[in-house]
Amino acid sequence: MSLESPTARPTPAAPVKVGVIGVGNMGQHHTRVLSLLKDVELVGVADASVERGQTIAKRYRIAFFEDYRDLLPLVDAVCVAVPTRLHHAVGLACFAARVHVLIEKPIAASIEEAESLVKAAAEAACILQVGHIERFNPAFKELSKVLSNEDIVALEAHRLSPYSDRANDVSVVLDLMIHDIDLILDLNPHPIVHLTASGSRAPGSPYLDYVTATLDFENGTIATLTASKITHQKRRTIVAHCRKSLTEADFLNHDISIHRQTTADYTTEHGQVLYRQDGTIERVRTSNIEPLHAELEHFMQCVRGSEPPSVGGEQALQALRLASHIERLAIAPRATTTPLDWQIESSAPYLATPVESEASAS
Length: 362
Description:
The protein is α/β, with parallel strands linked by helices. It has two domains: 16-131, 3-Layer(aba) Sandwich (Rossmann fold); 135-288 and 312-361, Dihydrodipicolinate Reductase, domain 2 (2-Layer Sandwich). The protein is 30% helix and 30% strand. It contains nine helices and 16 strands. The chain has helices spanning 25-34, 50-60, 87-96, 111-124, 138-147, 172-187, 291-304, 313-331, 358-361; strands at residues 16-21, 40-46, 63-65, 77-80, 100-104, 128-131, 152-160, 192-200, 210-217, 222-228, 235-242, 246-250, 255-267, 273-284, 342-345, 348-351. The strands form three sheets. Strands 8-9-10-7-11-12-13-14 form an eight-stranded mixed β-sheet. A six-stranded parallel β-sheet has the order 3-2-1-4-5-6, with helices on both faces. A two-stranded antiparallel ribbon has the order 15-16. A hairpin with a 3-residue loop joins strand 11 and strand 12 (246-250). Helix 4 (111-124) packs antiparallel against helix 8 and helix 6 packs across helix 8 (313-331). The longest helix has 19 residues, at 313-331.
């Protein structure tokens, strides 16, 4: 195993040497998928838990590193799946070693840390991709195509889950809702002029477990987002109310249904109506590719220099700014519901004056 530092980009003929930092729930999935990718050499994994790390390393016959910094000289790129509070420190170490990074969402625990990571990646000329995995869901890709020719009036996003021990170091806004924040901003890239939010905690919970937010866009579109960690049903949907259709996307089942209002009467020669059609439902077929597989393949292409990240640091930072403001309003809903100063940058809205969330600051 070579100990030479990686170059900024591996040559097209050489496999990309990659490692995984953090092999908890999500990190184990990263390891599994990376082990299956062509032209990728999975070098090793790092984890604070020696027992867990060694178990995963043995399963895939790769090296284990108790200190992730010992892994960095051996790889071109890493997937970082550590707790959010550690994203900043781990990311900075990776960029200092000139290693490309895919870091799980949210990009960081605060806006200041996220901005620091974006700056460090740029200075190191390294890829920074953030794991907003739903961008790679086949249902969302098809939804984007369907809505590109529609006049959107309103968007509804529901991301509901039963209680779980995973990601219990952040609120439901930064754990779940941030996925839909990113998707909504991509579907409707216009400034937000008004925002309200409210939320609640489960008994004994230090973070928000249920939050609803309403976004009013400058172009007249309204978006309502609901996220829950305490609902006894798993749901991942976006519904688009358009002038001439209603489109429902189910991200769990990779299904899309398009409802259109049409009226057609079938009559006899004497004018008697035998049958009336009041509407049609179109079913859109999507692929069965695993979103994580598509995301990691895309990351490898970015590392090779073939394409830019679908969700880079700047886009993830914009989503975090909005998520932080939603979180603050949900904690103290009477703080403000007046129009806010939003701007356009890179075709996506962001809060001009970042507001650090109370949960992140505590």
